[in-house]
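Checklist before submission:
- one chain only
- standard amino acids only
- sequence pasted in full

Submission:
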Amino acid sequence: MSAPQTIRRFVALLEGEEVEIEIRSDATGQVNYKVGDREGSAQYSVAASGDAVLLAQEARQLALRVAWEDDDVSVMGRDVSLNCALYPESRFLVSKMQGGIGPGAGTVAASMPGRVVKVLTEEGALVEQGDGLLILEAMKMENEIKAPRSGMVSSLKVAEGESVESGQTMVEISDE
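Returned file contents:
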């Protein structure tokens, strides 16, 4: 009987490109991974300090130092140096729908079809992350759509009473 596996899914932002990552690991130190279209497997062990990993893949061994700060990850080894933003898949998808992560960060799109009940801002307004931008009625509920980041409302693409489709851009926020 094989050991139970833990499956973790992430999205990495590497030079503006989204890369999907799936890691399947078990208590024996076996890991199967998929990074984009590339798949592989290795044995792994973690240093007592928790900031270094030893990967053994076939006859190759690779020692890596891993440093995390919020969502930013640095991986360093003898022949490897990688810096990226790494997000759990579910948080990435929710934040992306709200316009807060990835290419197009600052673009607020409708997550489902609805109707704009009230616009709370205007083009040219300076907003802080979390400020209300508009009220969207969807599925008989009113939802306050908030700014995913601080900046200036560079484009307001909806008006009160207007219907929106899922994925439709409603507001764009740029650097001041």
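Reviewer check: The chain has two domains: 5-89, 98-174.
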